[in-house]
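Standup notes, protein team

Yesterday: finished cleaning the Sulfidibacter corallicola set.
Today: Cation:proton antiporter structure.
Blockers: none.

Input for Cation:proton antiporter:
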Amino acid sequence: MLIPRSTTRFGAERLRPSVGFWILALVASIGTACFPLAEIETPAATSSVSAPYGAATLFSDRANIESESVPHERAAAADEPLETGQEPHQGDHGITHQMMVLVLQLAFIVIAARIGGELFERYLKQPAVLGELCAGMVIGPYALGPYLTVIGGDPLFPLLVGQSLPVSAALYGVATIASIVLLFLVGLETDFPQFVRYAGPGAAVGIGGVLGSFITGDLCYVLYAGVSFMDPAALFMGAVSTATSVGITARVLSEKKKLDAPEGTTILAGAVIDDVLGILILAVVGGIAEAHGAAQGEVDWTHISWIAVKAFGFWIVATAIGIALSKRVVASITWFKAPQAATTLSFGLALLLAGIAETFGLAMIIGAYIMGLSLSKEPISHYLERSLTPVSACLVPVFFAVMGMLVNFEAMGGALLFGIVYSVVAVFSKVLGSGIPCFLVGFNALGASRIGLGMLPRGEVALIVAGVGLSAGYIGDDMFGVVIMMTLITTLMAPPGLVALFAHEGEGLAQPKDLRVEEAPKGKREKLIYIDGLTWANHDLLIQSLRQAFEDKGFFFRTVRKEAGIYQMSGSYEGERVVVAMRDTKTRLEFKTDAACHELVKAMVETAHVDAQHRISRLRVVEVDLDEVRPAP
């Protein structure tokens, strides 16, 4: 046996759940009890639909704001909009009718998003995420939604007013779960050593992008309205400009297999820093705005400092604990015999960490990403990716379609010229603010452009922050429309721009050899193994047999780039985690791995060769008389 008996199919030792694991679970439960989610009232500042991204936790003390503070004029659509909390055609139907409406909403969203994504990919040569966003805009409550009806004549996507988001809490909850799935998978796909290596550049990118966007966004409103830099409206317009939505960029990077590239890991690291700093800026702006509105008010810096300590503390501690205990966590979840148990338990932990992150003032998606990142360095990560891919294919388009539904076309017309100027400033400030620091950390102009565009989308985070300012009365309905315009422009610009820049085969690093090549550990020199003599007639069959041989030994077989013939096998060999890279050139197979794994690869190839020969020997030609099997007229 090449794999020790104590090793499971996931490449981890089969152990009973450790005491440390259960202690960690207990601490997590206590943390949830000590920092419960704020009770959210119906006003927009603290609407329950805002909770998944941290805004509700920061402003839960504003639950007494009257819902009349939200202007209702923009909601005058085709049909009369529904008031906050009102569900269409409730009557005697109750929860059953609401669930029926939700199911029909999801059906329309999934189908429309799939069609939109396919049209954009096939005919416009653009990422599917753009089609999904546009599909949501078309069927959303600000467009065709009120005209699409369900049983009983109720609108399928009614326009809900009196809250920061125009969709129901149930539908937004499904979108939130979809975003957690997306970021959990992004964390699993992240190359952990590469992430650690580019954490420094990521911090520089995140800080530069936040500072540049906040200052220019604030100054832009100052010049437009003639107010001071510390005016609450100006501060909120600056804070809105800082919020990066990593979900859209992560989707494009994942589709293009660039998550492990230096630019991809830097963007992800920078997005985490960006989110933490964005929460802190939102807290500071909220404190200053509250003091500005109160007579002789003073900023509560103690409260703001506590928010900062909680956010940074959770981020650092959760990441450190997750990385330190990842092997124990894997051993615990693989203790269950059912193959699907590992997937369900790991996703359950991602949901748990996402919820705890919200209680500490961070976005839920950051908690999910930390969980995925912690497991990314374990062999089980490839199995989890493969298991969650079908779930992601169904749920993630829902997330982007719902984001498209938030676009209010009518609100954009209130300050159209300023909206265009503000959007242009937001684009350049983010691209330059995140891109310029890249030159100081080893990237060239191409790499800096990729990273700057990757940090560009504002997405749902900006809308939620703007909703907080709108409901609290710090910004008006026209400025909310400006934020929507900026969000739409930055969201639609980033995906095609990233695709075009990554289509350019140039290197993004200024000195690729010095930065990308690491010395192999002592006694672990890499070795290339070649298998010649392959033809079009047998190489596919041999690859299938190789995959079966590696999987039988507990390895995970991953297709990295099928069109380029690049594959990866990872698992445990002689008590250590090993990775074997394979490239199919159509005339030979090339294996790259540690020199110590030479015998492993040789044994796998011999096993696969025997299996392929056995399959060929079983082939036979069968002659069939079509007249005998053709049905009689």
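Follow-up from PR in the comments: The chain has two domains: 40-62+161-513, 520-617.
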